[in-house]
């Protein structure tokens, strides 16, 4: 805020939670720059109301909350924050992989009931990672950072990617012991993991999603988890955040995190810093640092 205030007049949303769409439409009028969060829907209505806008700086790497085509049509630069959140998101992905394969959520809930009877030889047996295959869907910065960490756990890695290298999606799904999603949300990736995809996975396999909720058909996932079509899932993102598919709450074989991927102090500071530098650069007539291309 201090950096922004040195460079321009700043109006800030200070309310609780997320600014309403109506308020965003009303307040964007007359502003040259907008710094947005993933929870702010910067759709055509907002962009059309922002007739003076030069830049929309998203404080996130994902930008499915912004109608980039509408912005581009009006010559508005859209920026995001790639790179600075790669490690934090890859670490959180591994936290979910470990939590779901070692049944940490179930165990933690049990201890908190004060009814855990103590150690037992066959209690809460999970899946060992060494020697297993990690399937990475989407081999960009975050997918690669998740892959880099796999060697430490003795896992082999297979991946798919937009550029066509890696293995076909069907093969990845049918051979991986853990499938981890790292694709952006686009028309092509919406419900990429549907009932048919889940049916292709091994019954002993786990699904982890730290990308965007709508990449997974949540109703199909709940059905697959309930019917033990797959062994478990670790989710950080949901189809209709903050709403979570009701059936997931009753299932022991799913770990539910509240969109924590980039949530470290270091990373959130770096994201804020990059979003601010992008906004100031464009407003000063300079090239944006990390434009959405
Ligand atoms: C992102 O950056 O896209 C995350 O989901 C929010 O930090």
CATH architecture of the largest domain: 3-Layer(aba) Sandwich
Strand content: 5-15%
**Mean pLDDT metric:** 98
- Helix vs. strand class: alpha/beta
**How much helix is in the residues?**
25-40%
The topology string of helices and strands comes to HHEHEHEHHEHEHEHEHEEH
Question: How many E-type strands?
Answer: 9
Number of domains: 2
In CATH terms, the superfamily of the largest domain is: NAD(P)-binding Rossmann-like Domain
Distance between the termini: 26 Å
Which segments are poorly predicted (pLDDT under 50) over 5 or more consecutive residues? Answer: none
Q: How would you describe this protein?
A:
The protein has 11 helices and 9 strands. By secondary structure, it is α/β, with parallel strands linked by helices. It folds into 2 domains: 101 residues, 3-Layer(aba) Sandwich (Rossmann fold), CATH 3.40.50.720; 171 residues, Rossmann fold, CATH 3.40.50. Helix 5 packs across helix 7. The longest helix is centred in the last third of the chain and has 19 residues. The two termini are 26 Å apart. (2R)-2,3-dihydroxypropanoic acid (DGY) binds next to loops. The site of (2R)-2,3-dihydroxypropanoic acid (DGY) has 7 residues, from loops.
